[in-house]
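yo

u said u wanted the structure for the complex thing, so here. seqs first:
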Amino acid sequence: ILFFRISKKRDLNMRQKIGESRSKFRDNHALMSPDSHERTNLPNWPGSELVIVIAPQMGAKFSQFFAHMPAGSIAHPPLEGMERFIFVLDGEVELSIEGSIHKLQEEGYAFLPNDRNYQIKAQIDTRLIVLERPFVQLEGQPAPKLHVANAKKLTAVPMKGDDMLMLKKLIPENLTYDCEFNIMDFSPGASLPYVETHFMEHGLLFLNGGGIYRLDDCWYPVEKGDIIWMGPYCPQWFGAIGRSNARYLIYKNWNRDPHAF
Ligand code: UGY
Ligand code: MN
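structre next:
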């Protein structure tokens, strides 16, 4: 293990020294690998370092970022009209919202509706993945509810009948929500059943394992820690390669007419 760690580190430095990265940005998709992360700060995350990996500037209609929160730091709500999803990669946060407190540990998550008052406090050094987007109301539907849970406690179901591809749906399936967050878990050798093309976008984080991701006419090797943005109609396919499961967290805009965006 030690040898592997050393050689991997050296390899990474070599690549960086010659100006190489696996990160790629195209008109309808992007791959962001950890070797090109740029840390930055934002006013509503005092003391935290953020890596903004997906943003409207690249053509996406949402943003996604890693938040490195030191113990004791506090994060505040996003801009007006923006809903937020947070997922704990490691560490622990306390979410205080309208008189109640929720503890979120590894794979704990929260869907936070727009324009609510809350704070997120890191109990220890914590890494979150966060997604924000402007909420799109559906006429006749009430506002979506706060939803807090832990992905480890959810039961996975086979996707489209394939028990080599297991799916966990993280937020409730009702029309008040304008998006979905899922975890897809591929056994070694499993793949998406066909090349998908759809008007919805994706923001994706590899949680474990890896494989080959097809995006438009490019095939990319991908691994844990990689982020992918898929724009509308970006042809997409994934095949899991390796001896362990490949697992990713994926966002999708959902439950709304294509004209509503
Ligand atoms: O839900 C989805 O569209 C999902 N199957 N897409 C993907 O994994 N690229
Ligand atoms: Mn898809």
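The longest strand covers residues 82-90. Confidence is low (pLDDT under 50) at residues 1-7.
cya
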